[in-house]
TrEMBL record:
Annotated ATP binding sites: K549
Pfam family, one: S_locus_glycop
One cellular-component annotation, GO: membrane
Gene Ontology terms for molecular function: ATP binding; protein kinase activity; protein serine kinase activity; protein serine/threonine kinase activity
Residues annotated as domain Bulb-type lectin: 21-152
Domain of life, source organism: Eukaryota
Annotated protein name in UniProt: Receptor-like serine/threonine-protein kinase
Species this protein is from: Setaria italica (Foxtail millet)
Domain called Protein kinase: residue spans: 520-806
Topology relative to the membrane: Single-pass type I membrane protein
Length: 808
């Protein structure tokens, strides 16, 4: 399949780059010195030899014109290329000129040049501008034997591709805030890049490229629509118009609603018909309705405000909605203040979600737990909860990319002040047309877990009883099946029993042969440390993974498997996901998700790049949340024991993911008791190890707190703490560093301490808070804060950078 795509692309490109014939007539070729006035816009500047395309002036508004190329037969002169999108020229006095120096230029009525091709050639008057049968506007020099165009419109697409026109890695199609382009992983994507947020929304951002049917293993980055209506892309995307076949004039266009469509022209009328669209659900496009707004499609697209919010500008729904209540400033709460249950309630919106901007992600949690998290977190403005075999919880920090769709099974619960009247007419008017709020919206006062429908809707009870009955039958089947397995356990071979246990788990057991093949015999090394070497691997379904060969592992297969059942269930957005393991004799390996942007140390301590402050703070907060999850929320209490920049991996968006957690459980140890454990040898890395490691005392989670404090300080200063020196060149002791930090905290003068490469571009309150936390992490063990305390403190300060709506 890939080779067929490559052949098609090569053939189409060959057609696209054919140079104009030197003997072309004046109808489609003009020499230097030619021009056209905007007053003559009824007459085309050029026409292709076969008459398919024309170029010239077309109306772009009242007394406004653009210089464009269009299908001659299109009834509305729909542009397939425009020289000056967004900058139309005056309807009087403007002119397109092919200058003597070989440059094509568009001049406005006042004489200013709005657009020019910025080309010139050595051929002088021999230069020619032509419109080819492909729709490519070309400036060529007939005396140039190479046949290469000096300039061509195909190299500068606007919002449209025509058949045989390539989209390459150096190009993008743009419509407003939306663009279609090849990302740095070689995948063709749609991006919303607005004034407040930016996010990728196609292909499905919840899936990796391979699950979306794409591949990252082709760096050519090229896509072409052919004459039959088939669009082929080097990332394995292949789509076609519904009227597939030759003889139809088509175009592929990204539009102001963020969707990409293939249009086919009806020869009889010159009108256009949509024959393919990238987004089947228009509201899945990001950024259509702005902050706190919801996109609905019934049957046409409209934007409305979430309950408790009103339009910022009723003439422009993309500006979003603003709260109709006073927003709490998280850093200025009165103390003591009423409990969260006394201050907030939730409004339920079924089949509605706001994509992205999750404070955290929780799996296998109850509705009550999810609600409690949002109630107790000041920055939480609502939470999404849905059952997918287990409860999945997404507390939200801001409300962007809202949509309502009957196909979406989740529910959003919006957090509102308890005294806010969500049923009042002024509070529930959600659309620009003043429509009443959705009748499915209900208020959950005090967060009653049973309030899933509207009050008084007794007709739903029979369905609830029926549902409960079905669950009861399923429970009986499950129990009976489990009893059968237990009763027949003696007759099941141990290998099959292990396999059965893995089927019921959340990850899988690999054979050593599978991982050897996946890594190409452990060919590409990603990194190494005290626990083993990490290799890049590709599983049989194309998923990229990181495979770690472990060293110094205790116990046999059964003990290793028992530990993995705990580690494999650990799941948090700021922890590297473990997909499985291998345990065959001496071979002990772990299979992790592949995190593409290397580790924190590669960015923080590099001499050829500078990590911006915003990313630094987000990494610090994400790391704190990941460790807080390990320490306080895991099914079994987990200490990392080796927190350092090398074990903090970064995604493409610079979100932190902690690696190598749980390895302390797999290493040789003497036992555990209570909240402490006694390891048979010291773990960690010099410079990040807490003092108690050398005191032969039981270890608890405070060793991670100490290490995190060192990492936090390094994020601020941009260099290793272990490399700090006095003016005389002597190495600074930790006590001396702590004294410096106390002076900084006392004076508030943080700038001399912050990484100078930032050139003052940082947030002083955030930096001061990070230093204060770092200092507290270096105190005696009993005086150190918990990771939960640290995460909350950093989150409270986060609104100064990430959440401007919370500013006072």
């Amino acid at each position: 399949m890939a080779s067929r795509y490559g052949t098609c692309l090569a053939f189409i490109l060959l057609l696209a780059t054919v140079a104009p014939c030197p003997s072309a007539s004046a109808q489609h070729t003009l020499g230097a010195g030619s021009s056209l006035s905007v007053e003559d816009h009824e007459r085309p500047f050029l026409t292709s030899p076969d008459g398919t395309f024309s170029c010239g002036f077309r109306e772009a508004g009242e007394n406004a014109f653009s210089f464009s190329v269009w299908y001659t037969g299109a009834v509305e002169k729909t542009a397939v290329w425009t020289a000056n999108p967004g900058a139309p020229v005056n309807g009087r006095g403007s002119r397109i000129s092919f200058r003597r120096d070989g440059g094509l230029a568009l001049d406005d009525a006042n004489g200013t040049t709005v657009w020019e091709s910025k080309t010139s050639g050595g051929g002088g008057s021999a230069l020619a501008v032509s419109l080819l049968d492909t729709g490519n506007l070309v400036i060529s020099d007939p005396s140039n034997n190479s046949g290469r165009a000096a300039w061509q419109s195909f190299d500068w697409p606007t919002d449209t591709l025509v058949p045989s026109q390539p989209l390459t890695k150096h190009m993008k199609l743009v419509a407003g805030y939306f663009s279609l382009y090849y990302d740095n992983d070689n995948v063709l994507r749609l991006l919303y890049d607005g004034p407040e947020i930016s996010s990728i929304y196609w292909p499905n951002p919840d899936k990796d490229p391979f699950k979306n049917g794409r591949t990252t293993y082709n760096s050519s980055r090229i896509g072409v629509l052919d004459d039959n209506g088939l669009f082929l892309s080097s990332d394995n995307l292949g789509v076609n118009a519904s009227d597939l076949g030759p003889g139809v004039k088509r175009r592929l266009t990204i539009e102001q609603d963020g969707n990409v469509r293939i249009y086919s022209m009806k020869a009889s009328t010159g009108g256009w018909t949509v024959t393919w669209a990238a987004m089947a659900q228009p509201c899945y496009v990001h950024g259509l309705c702005g902050r706190n707004a919801i996109c609905e499609y019934e049957p046409s697209l409209r934007c409305s405000c979430a309950p408790g919010y009103e339009m910022v500008d009723r003439q422009d729904s993309r500006k979003g909605c603003k709260p109709m209540f006073t927003v709490t400033n998280c850093s200025l709460q009165a103390s003591p203040s009423p409990s969260p249950e006394q201050r907030y309630k939730f409004v339920k919106m079924p089949h509605t979600d706001f994509y992205g901007y999750d404070l955290w992600f929780y799996q296998s949690v109850t509705f009550e737990y999810c609600k409690k998290i949002c109630l107790e977190t000041c920055l939480c403005v609502g939470f999404s909860y849905k059952l997918e075999g287990q409860g999945v919880c997404y507390p939200k920090s801001v409300l962007f990319n809202g949509f309502t769709s009957s196909s979406f099974t989740g529910t959003i619960y919006l957090k509102l002040p308890i005294d806010f009247n969500a049923s009042a007419p002024t509070a529930t008017a959600r659309s620009t047309a003043g429509l009443a709020c959705d009748p499915n919206v209900s208020v959950i006062v005090q967060g009653s877990p049973g309030t899933f429908g509207r009050p008084g809707n007794d007709a739903k009870w029979p369905y609830l009883f029926a549902f409960a009955g079905v669950l009861g039958v399923l429970d009986l089947i499950f129990i009976a099946t489990g009893c059968w397995f237990l009763s027949s356990k003696q007759s099941i071979p141990s290998s099959l029993e292990a396999g059965y246990r893995m089927v019921t788990g959340q990850f899988r057991r690999f054979t050593y042969r599978e991982l050897k093949d996946a890594t190409g015999n452990f060919k590409e090394e990603l990194g190494r440390g005290g626990s083993g070497v990490v290799y890049r691997g590709v599983l049989d379904k194309g998923k990229i993974v990181a495979v770690k060969k472990l060293t110094n592992v205790a116990g046999g297969d059964e003990e290793f498997w028992a530990e993995m059942t705990v580690i494999g269930r650990i799941n948090h957005i700021n922890l590297v996901r473990i997909w499985g393991f291998c345990s065959q004799g001496k071979h002990k390996l772990l299979v992790y998700e592949y995190v593409e942007n290397e580790s924190l140390d590669r960015h923080l301590f590099a001499t050829d790049r500078t990590l911006p402050w915003r990313e630094r703070y987000r990494i610090a907060l994400g790391t704190a949340r990941g460790l807080a999850y390990l320490h306080h929320e895991c099914l079994e209490w987990v200490i990392h024991c080796d927190v350092k920049p090398e074990n903090i991996l970064l995604t493409r968006e610079f979100d932190a993911k902690i690696a190598d957690f749980g390895l302390a459980k797999l290493s040789k140890r003497d036992g555990a008791a209570g909240d402490s454990m006694q390891l048979s040898h010291m773990r960690g890395t010099t410079g990040y190890m807490a003092p108690e490691w050398a005191l032969n005392v039981p270890i608890n989670a405070k060793v991670d707190v100490y290490s995190y404090g060192i990492v936090l300080l390094e994020i601020v200063i941009g260099s290793r703490i272990s490399e700090q020196r006095t003016a005389g060149g002597e190495r600074l002791e930790k006590s001396q560093i702590a004294e410096v930090l106390r002076q900084v905290v006392a004076s508030g003068d943080i700038e001399p301490l912050v990484d100078g490469r930032l050139q003052g571009q940082f947030n002083p309150p955030q930096a001061l808070e990070m230093v204060r936390i770092s200092l507290s992490c270096m105190e005696e063990r009993s005086s150190r804060p918990t990771m939960d305390d640290i995460a909350q403190a950093l989150a409270a300060c986060d609104d100064e950078d990430e959440h401007p709506a919370y500013r006072s």
